[in-house]
Each structure stands twice: as C-alpha cells, then as structure tokens.
Amino acid sequence: MDSKYLTIYNEITSKIENGKFEPNTKLSSENEMMQEYDVSRDTIRKALNLLEQNGYIQKIKGKGSFVLDINKFDFPVSGLTSFKELSEKIGKKSNTVLQELELIEPDKFLMEQLNVSQDDNVWKVIRVREIGNNKIILDKDFFNQKFVPLLNKEICEDSIYEYLENTLGLNISFAKKEITVQKATEEDKRYLDMEHYDMIVVVKNYIYLDDTNLFQYTESRHRPDKFRFVDFARRK
Q: Which NCBIfam families match (predicted)?
C-alpha cells in the first residue's frame, strides 16, 4: 500500500496534469495541507520534496510552493535551428520583438568572441521572443559585418537566417555551443516575463560558415521552466 506522502503526491500531480492546478498557482501552505490530509508536517514535506524533484513545483523560501508549467518546449542542443523554425515546429503563437539594432565597434569581449579587431564593425541585435504571449527568450546576436553587410528591422523580426541563406547565399555550417545556468540579470528581468524565477539558462553559440569562418556570436537566454534541452546520442 502506498505511503501517505505518495498518495498526496499522486493526488497533486494528477491535478497539475489535468489542469486543475494551473502553472504559477501557489499551493496551500504546509499547515493547511496538514489539516486537509490529516497528516504530519514531515509527510507533507516528503510529498512536496518529491513534487519538486520531479519538476512539478518550485519551492521558494519564505513564499511557498508554486506549480510549474510541465508543458515544456523541446529545444535541440545539436543542430542549428532558428527561432522561426522552432516556433513552427511547436505550433504555438509566437512573436519576435526587436529591442536593439545597431552597428557597433566591438569591445574587448566581442573581439575575443568573434575573433575580430577594433577596426571591424559588428551588428548588435537584441530580440525578445514570445511564445503563447509569454516573453521567455532574450536573444543577443552579434554578426561580423564583413559577412553580413546589411540588417534592418524587417529582417530581424522575421528570420535573419532565411535572409542570410536565401538572399546573401551564405552557407551556415556548424556551431560550438556552451550551456550554463546563471543568475538572471536586470536586463533579463526588464525584457522577459521572469515571474518568480531568478535563474536563467544561457546558450552561447559560436556559429561558422562552411569555409570555417566564424561570423556570429549569440547569447540566447531562456526562462528555465519553459524549455527542455534535448539531444540524440549514439554509443560508437
């Protein structure tokens, strides 16, 4: 027979999966749940810990337990997928909002990331990505102007990759990726619907053409509850 904490766990997961508890709903307090289920605090905490471990809730010290959105979007780790291609695959309403577009002189950091000199110019493109009316991705793209001579608002709000491949005829070949979890910045909080999250998943991309020229550096900053980073691996 299931332990009491497993019975509570199963009841709450069922309510989350069936939509009775919507994402961001605050669960009852430990004291309220103790009375509702007529169990000890230890039993309630075991159930809550299991819910958190399995990705159903987020416990926030001093605030309580909040339901997570269990319907995450799959984001491929391998391969190069544009946001437009990703949103078409997901099949949900999406939108891109251009926040910044300017041609800049690279600072020391960008010179190192893009392997350019101070004499080179770099396109800086800051875009907010919305899926289902939630602002959940902040894309910070930097393009070497040597390979991308022109960008405008229309291109940036549609698909830069379509423009690069179909209009400029660039052959985008491969990328080196780095994924980290970082503390959300004030910029993240300003542009994204962070809600109660204070961490962000950062995917850095160094993107190369088929002639091995590095032409783009990107920081793609994702709200942590909305994405599941997936890959396929085969043991050789």
A: trehalos_R_Bsub (TIGR02404)
